[in-house]
Specification:
The complex is a heterotrimer.
Chain A (H helix, E strand, L loop, with lengths): L3 E12 L36 E2 H13 L3 E2 L2 E2 L1 E5 L9 E5 L5 E10 L2 E14 L3 E5 L8 E5 L6 E7 L6 H17 L12 E11 L9 E6 L2 H20 L8 E5 L4 E4 L12 E2 L6 E2 L2 H10 L4 H12 L3 H7 L3 H13 L3 H19 L10 H12 L5 H14 L3 H8 L7 H14 L1 H8 L4 H13 L6 H13 L1
Parallel strand pairs in A: 13-14
Antiparallel strand pairs in A: 1-11, 1-12, 3-7, 4-17, 5-6, 5-16, 7-8, 8-11, 9-10, 12-13, 14-15
Helix pairs in contact in A: 1-4, 2-3, 5-6, 7-8, 7-9, 8-10, 9-10, 12-14, 12-15, 13-14, 14-15
Chain B lengths: L2 H10 L6 H18 L23 E2 L9 H5 L5 E2 L2 E5 L6
Antiparallel strand pairs in B: 2-3
Chain C lengths: L7 H9 L5 H19 L2 E4 L1 H16 L10 E5 L26 H8 L3 E6 L33 H8 L5 E6 L5 H6 L3 E4 L19 E6 L2 H11 L29 E5 L9 H16 L3 E5 L7 H16 L18 H9 L4 H14 L5 H24 L2 E5 L15 H6 L2 H9 L3 E8 L5 E8 L4 H15 L7 H7 L1
Parallel strand pairs in C: 2-3, 2-4, 7-8, 7-9
Antiparallel strand pairs in C: 1-3, 4-6, 5-6, 5-10, 9-11, 10-11
Classes of the chains: A alpha+beta, B alpha+beta, C alpha/beta.
Chain lengths: ~475, ~100, ~500
């Protein structure tokens, strides 16, 4: 049996974060009443003409820059023609042979090696409306309902080269792509709201072969997990066919999440021929180099560069730097906190650990955290000043997330301040030593392990407020000198 | 152009043809095509296509939200409107 | 002369002097409509109530000092201009009950200066045709001879102005659809430079060829209407960003020293002898006024029809695809699924529209694109270059507007190819995007009007209008009225 190489290419659509649609002034806000954000232009009423949104162009260029693309000085809008009830003009304004951005790449870290996935193109186009099917799914529905609020929202289509070699790599690519587009504030990339969508082309070929096998296009991939699962299913399905000496049929297949399998979709009435031609209503778009540079200046530091800087500037490990830069929000959170309190180890441990834990528990992004970076710094300063222990600090943070109060207030109100004065500590220690003659004898006999037990008893007696380091020192002084 | 070819194009264009049209169109369209093939004789080597009658920079609009149509107006021309949606019979193919 | 037969500039004087009101003018127009519309059939929709309300408002505006020459003037608009609240059919069953929620920019500009919208005029379905016989509702008859067509596709607009059913009209011109009916009906028609008059709201046939322009009694009126509708529009991405000159000021009557080109290719054998004679007569008159007429050559004009046909059909196939019966317009009563709904709904299109859609679809298909569409776009470049070269020598170019005067009904017995051939004099200006004016330049022995076409450099409407106006002032054409006048009096 031959060893098979998996060849995957992705087509990703991301909705742009513009306020208004790409060719008209209707709002892009999600979740409005059906057909309440439409106008003659995005309804395709006869006589209307497309008015290109400048910001949409800028965001598409920004995406191209984040994906290391060449920005083409001239690009052309073309009509992609097909009939579908959600497509108001029976053509989509898109770009064909002269796209806005070409020839980029994304670098992925897969099993400790850097994999470069080529980006064929990034082009600008418009969304279609949304159809809601009355019934289980599109096939069994008796009728469908059309809402055109989404029609005309600006989209970028990102087409990769067939460089992806495994279903897992496909998922990692998408995660990285989402990270980049979110960093650049091009798209919010919410797969659940449909603002990020992905179709996959997959084929198999014998290892060592340079010719491509017959590919299938997989649709209805509604989550990153679905992308990986569907492709894993498809690898096995195609492998089984090929190994049985059967041919893979070039077709579009539909991923069924519930059944965990892909199935062939009813074929179209005719082969797709989109009859592209340049839209005579839109003159060629010129993006001059000076404009590109102005857009480049808007780009934030991108995740890879930021990760490297975090390692260098803050002495963080690769792992810590990777986690902290996984989203722009989290990285910003970390750096804002660092401005207040210059202890990278302390801050990174807290942000990666407790802060992320509570964010996740509350279902929040770092940017929406009720505990601001400044608030966190306030808490960490109390630790640094030995005013509270780490243990107490964890409880205080939980309280901060729940109430929004500052660390100082919580510590004061609940009397959680750490006990560090020797007089109070010595009184407590004396009581503990008296109550535990056995361990005391052990320590005196040189079994230093028992010190830990005694410190623990003091902590217990103080309800966690004693300064454990000082208690340790004082016990040692008493028993070992 | 044969009737068969013509009918294929008609499906692509989603245009139903009457019996009369099926009768007369193939001949008429063949005539038209043979007439327009005079262009085959024109030397267009090195000639750029003219997509737009005048040369002008692309028009760009600022990203500002403008009022949408009142919902009743948006739906007013719909042949079959239900609960604020346009209704269509079942869709038998995916995009 | 009746009020409904006067030019805009004559009415302007009367209105300014307070001798008549907009209401009185409109009453005269509707009286004429009542008398002749049953025979002429210029309109698809009359806006009686709205028009009188607008006339009342115009009278108030005039009293308040409004100076626009169009204030209070009754104007007809071709039924492919969107009009808020007034159905806009394009003479197609697909849009029989479609009511746009907005006004086309040209209509909005007319309304803003106080013009009065009389009604929506008949056309060939979606502007596809040269006789208005392709209207899916009714035929329009030529007021000069009711057995003949008014031309098309703006046949309703031309007939309305010629018959005194409006003072002026707006038309659209994709390959001659303003100029050919204007010539057939003995009026003035102007197709301006591409991009000068915004297309927003005009139902597109072919975006890169569609033009909007005035259809009027004389050249001065054309200048006045153009002034009101020209200029950059933020709703039309193809509209030209440039300053608009004073067109009426260009009508100096002086054409001394102008070079007028006469292309030999447009004076050939296909031309009716009476038309040729009229055009040569006009050339002589222009020379006598101090212009010099020079024979020129436009070598690629012989390919204009094929080039025009391919590009227009391709764009039409795309633009007419949106009429699918989902959001507006006609939908077939019964359909099992959306594919059959689309096909059966669109079966209601007329034959010419279908032919164009089929051809355009074919031209854009993979494997045909280069042979047809791309090839045509390249030949379009050569035709444009022919004009650019000619305009290095000439200020304007003249030609017949049409090869014959108005023809009789029943063109359907003729083949589409012979129909398309008659566009040769006009469609070149659409391919090149240049301004082209038609003015009456005589009558056939049967008493039918003949048109002279005057073409100019891009955005040089002033030169085109100046030459047209000078010609008109000195042509001394016998003042004749269309036949309907006689009939209704009898």
């Amino acid at each position: 049996m031959a060893d098979w190489e998996v060849v995957i290419g992705l087509e990703v659509h991301a909705e742009l974060l513009t306020k208004s649609k790409v060719f008209c002034g209707c709002s892009t806000e999600f979740g409005a009443e059906p057909n309440s954000q439409v106008c003659p232009i995005c309804m395709g009423l006869p006589g209307t003409l497309p008015l290109l949104n400048k910001r949409a162009v800028e965001l598409a260029v920004k995406a191209g820059l984040a994906l290391q693309c060449r920005i083409n000085q001239f690009s052309v809008f073309a009509r992609k023609q097909y009939f579908y009830p959600d497509l108001v003009k029976a053509y989509q304004i898109s770009q064909d042979d002269l796209p806005l951005c070409s020839d980029g790449y994304v670098e992925l870290l897969v099993d400790d090696t850097v994999r470069r996935i080529g980006i064929n193109r990034v082009h600008l186009e418009e969304e279609a409306g949304k159809s809601i099917h009355a019934g289980e799914d599109i096939m069994s529905a008796a009728y469908s309902l059309l809402d055109y609020n989404r029609a005309g929202i600006g989209l970028i289509e990102i087409v990769t080269e067939p460089d992806i070699r495994s279903p897992e790599e496909a998922r990692l690519f998408l995660e990285k792509l989402r990270q980049l587009l979110q960093y650049a504030e091009v798209s919010d990339c919410k797969m659940e709201e449909g603002s990020l969508r992905c179709d996959a082309n997959i084929s198999l070929r014998p290892k060592g072969s340079s010719a491509f096998g017959v590919k299938c296009e997989i649709k209805n991939l509604n989550s990153f997990r679905a992308v990986q699962r569907a492709l894993e299913f498809e690898v096995e399905r195609q492998k089984a066919l090929l190994e049985a000496g059967e041919a893979v049929v070039p077709e579009t297949r539909h991923w069924d999440e519930a059944q965990g399998m892909t199935f062939s979709m009813r074929s179209k009435a005719e082969a797709a021929d989109y009859r592209y031609f340049p839209d005579p209503n839109l003159y060629p778009l010129e993006v001059e180099p000076s404009w590109v540079e102005a857009i480049r200046a808007e780009l934030p530091e991108l995740p890879d560069a930021r990760r490297d800087r975090f390692m260098e500037e803050y002495g963080l490990s690769m792992y810590a730097a990777e986690v902290l830069t996984s989203s722009r929000d989290l990285a910003d959170y970390f750096e804002e906190c660092m401005e207040q309190i210059k202890d990278p180890k302390l801050v990174s441990n807290w942000v990666m650990g407790e802060v992320q834990r509570w964010l996740k528990a509350h279902g929040l992004e770092a940017a929406d955290s009720p505990v601001s970076p400044k608030d966190l710094a306030g808490l960490l300063q109390l630790i640094q000043a030995n005013a509270i222990s780490n243990l107490v600090a964890k409880d205080v943070l939980e309280e901060m997330f729940a109430t929004g109060k500052s660390a100082q207030t919580i510590v004061d109100d609940k009397g959680l301040r750490q006990i560090s004065d020797d007089d109070s500590l010595e009184a407590m220690i004396a009581e503990v030593l008296e109550a535990n003659p056995g361990p005391v004898a052990d320590v005196k006999a040189g079994k230093t392990k028992a010190i830990g037990f005694l410190v623990g008893q003091v902590m217990k007696a103080s309800k966690g407020k004693a300064n454990p380091q000082r208690v340790n020192e004082l016990i040692r002084q008493k028993l070992q000198d | 152009m044969t009737l068969q070819e013509l009918e294929a194009v008609a499906v692509t264009a989603r245009v139903g043809l009457t019996e009369e049209e099926k009768e007369i169109f193939p001949e008429q369209i063949s005539q038209i095509i043979s007439h327009i093939r005079v262009l085959d004789g024109v030397d267009t080597h090195g000639t750029a296509p003219t997509y737009y009658p005048i040369k002008q920079a692309a028009f760009l609009r600022e990203d500002e939200v403008e009022p949408s149509l009142p919902k009743d107006q948006a739906l007013a021309n719909g042949p079959d409107v239900v609960d604020g949606y346009f209704r269509v019979p079942r869709i038998i193919e995916e995009e | 002369m009746q009020l409904n037969e006067m030019s805009i500039h004559q009415l302007r004087e009367l209105l300014r002097a307070g001798e008549v009101s907009s209401r009185e003018i409109l009453e005269a127009v509707f009286a004429k409509i009542d008398a002749v519309e049953g025979e002429v059939g210029a309109y698809l929709t009359l806006c009686y109530d709205e028009a009188f309300a607008q006339a009342q408002r115009a009278d108030e505006m005039l009293a308040a000092g409004e100076t626009s020459p169009l204030c209070g003037i009754p104007i007809a608009v071709k039924d492919n201009f969107s009009t808020a609240g007034v159905r806009t059919t394009c003479a197609s069953r697909l849009l029989e009950n479609y009511i746009p929620p907005y006004d086309a920019s040209a209509v909005a500009r007319l309304k803003q200066v106080g013009a009065v919208l009389v009604g929506k005029t008949n056309l060939d379905e979606f502007g596809l045709g040269s006789s208005t016989e392709n209207s899916q509702f009714h035929c329009t008859r030529n007021p000069w001879d009711l057995s003949r067509v008014p031309g098309g596709s703006s046949g309703g607009s031309a007939a309305a102005v010629a018959a005194g059913e409006a003072a002026a009209a707006l038309g659209t011109d994709t390959g001659g659809s303003i100029r050919q009916p204007a010539a057939f009906c003995g009026i003035v028609g102007l197709k301006p430079t591409y991009g000068l008059v915004p297309r927003y709201g005009v139902v597109a046939a072919a975006d890169s060829m569609d033009h909007i322009g005035p259809m009027t009694r004389d050249v001065r009126d054309a200048a006045l209407v153009l002034q009101a509708i020209a200029g950059w529009d933020p709703k039309d991405p193809t509209s030209a960003r440039r300053d608009i000159p004073d067109y009426e000021a260009a009508l100096t009557g002086n054409i001394k020293g102008l070079v007028v080109g006469l292309p030999q290719e447009l004076m050939g054998d296909a031309l009716d002898p009476e038309v040729r004679e009229a055009v040569f007569g006009a050339a002589n008159l222009l020379e006598s006024l101090g212009a010099s007429v020079e024979e020129i050559s436009l070598p690629h004009v012989e390919y204009a029809i094929a080039t025009f046909y391919i590009i227009v059909s391709a764009e039409i196939s795309s633009n007419l695809a949106r009429f699918d019966g989902v959001r507006y317009g006609y939908r077939v009563a019964e359909a099992e699924d959306t594919v059959s709904m689309f096909i059966k709904t669109r079966e209601a299109l007329g034959q010419e529209a279908k032919r164009r859609i089929l051809m355009g679809t074919y031209f854009l298909q993979a494997g045909n694109y280069e042979t047809y569409y791309l090839k045509a776009l390249k030949v379009r470049t050569l035709i444009k270059e022919d004009f650019e070269k000619a305009f290095q020598r000439c200020h304007v170019i003249i030609s017949p507007t049409t090869p014959t005067a108005a023809f009789a009904f029943g063109h359907k017995t003729r083949t589409p190819v012979t129909m398309y051939q008659s566009d040769i004099y006009t469609c070149t200006a659409n391919l090149a995007g240049i301004p082209a004016l038609t003015v009456p330049c005589g009558y056939t022995q049967e008493g039918l009007p003949i048109g002279l076409q005057i073409m100019g450099k891009p955005f040089d409407e002033p030169a085109v209008l100046r030459v047209g106006h000078a010609y008109e002032q000195h042509a001394g054409l016998p003042l004749r009225q269309p036949q309907t006048e006689v009939k209704t009096n009898g």
